[in-house]
Amino acid sequence: MINYQPLLTPLTLTNGAVIPNRLAMAPTSVTDAAPDGSITSANLLFFEARSQVAGLLIAGAATVTERGKAFESQMSVAQDQHIVGLRQLAETMKQDGSKAVLQIYHAGCQAAASHAIYGEVVAPSQRSFQGLRYEPRELSDEEILTIIRQFGEATERAIEAGFDGVEIHGANNFLIHQFFSAYSNLREDKWGGSLEKRMAFPLAVVKEVKKVAVKEKSDFIVGYRLVPEEIIVDGTGYSFEESLALIDVLANQQLDYIHLSIFSGYKSHAANSPVPYGQAVKALVGERAAVMIVSQVTTAEEALDGLKFGDIVALGRSSMIEPAFAAKIEKGQSESIWTEITAESAPNLALPHDLVELFTSGAVSLRLPGQEYLQK
Q1: What is the pTM (predicted TM-score) of this model?
Q2: Which of 2, 45, 125, 185 is deepest in the core (most CB within 10 A)?
Q3: Which residues fall within 8 angstroms of residue 76, CB to CB, at 6 or more apart?
């Protein structure tokens, strides 16, 4: 008989907030918001169905400015008008005792939805990117400072809406990631150049968010998500060693958790090291922050094994497939956890119809490596 108690043990975070178990719902973006980013009934149904999937639910991703939106019909926290809907979302996510976290981000050069409206996007530097049909405009110093403030304002709105925390999205080639990458950041001012200067924007955003959080709500959770390394063909990007240097600085900012965005499995590691990413980061961070790992966790046994690599195990595809993942473990029903979408389970998943068709047709397997971002 497998003892799953380690997964069910509460975890006290840096700021004193307690999450009821060691499972989190990864910030999967399902684009069902209104065109202006307001919360819809579809958003509420999606999270209502998953209120028992984990002890920490992360809603991703909410744009901090209308000029930073990657996908159409993506939720927004850019204006006060969004607070009413976000309050409904927070209440829905917390209805069974889970903590509700709102992921906040700016897509930078990846803001395709904003480009369709405004005819331009911004980035740390002006350069061509493979796969983008447009070239971004370089941000001015004044614009950079404005975006930093917008992250703080988004945090204020998340607090007013009743969320328990925010996750700063510094991963997956969005704006914060772009500033840290030597591939996308070609600046030679205080925001780019050396490793220390490439850290400046991520650090400034964290400090702004923490300043708001500490002022407004002492136990407000602040997490940070990042990709452990960026390997580009020409050798630029950033190495895992550089990522560790950033993580070391971030861990000193009293973050509650550091979330490693991994697509190759929670056991994966850098090419030049046999030590898995999660274990290497935990050894560096120590007790300064919790470490959250993700990728290819589909069963209770795999989730339990994941605790060897981090303090919190996030569920990406599994949160789509099995909305009662944590609840079934708590009830001793781990063997009944769904590991694939079937005709029987699909009606209870509150997923967009075309997404259900895609997975039940066999064209895509949720057990295979790949992105967690599921779009209509």
Answers
A1: 0.94
A2: 185
A3: 33, 36, 37, 38, 62, 63, 66, 69, 82
The two structure tokens encoding residue 34: 């209104």
- Decide the pairing of beta strands 237-238 and 230-231: antiparallel
Helices (H), 253-324: 277-285, 300-306, 317-321
* Distance of alpha carbon 296 from alpha carbon 225, whole angstroms: 17
Cα–Cα distance list, 137 to 73, 108, 125, 337 (Å): 24, 10, 7, 47
Query: How many other C-beta atoms are found inside a 10 Å radius of the C-beta of residue 290?
Result: 24
Question: Domain locations in the chain?
Answer: 5-360
* Contact call for residues 29 and 375 (beta carbons, < 8 A): yes
Is the dihedral angle over the CA atoms 336, 96, 20, 84 positive or is it negative? positive
The residue count of the chain comes to: 376
pLDDT tens-place string over residues 174-225: 999 999 999 999 999 999 999 999 999 999 999 999 999 999 999 999 999 9
CATH architecture of the domain with range 5-360: Alpha-Beta Barrel (3.20)
Structure tokens at 356: 């259900």
Q: For residues 319 and 24, give the distance between their C-alpha atoms in angstroms, rounded to a whole number.
A: 9
Answer positive or negative: Cα dihedral of 16, 23, 372, 77.
negative
Among 298, 291, 304, 322, CA closest to 52: 322
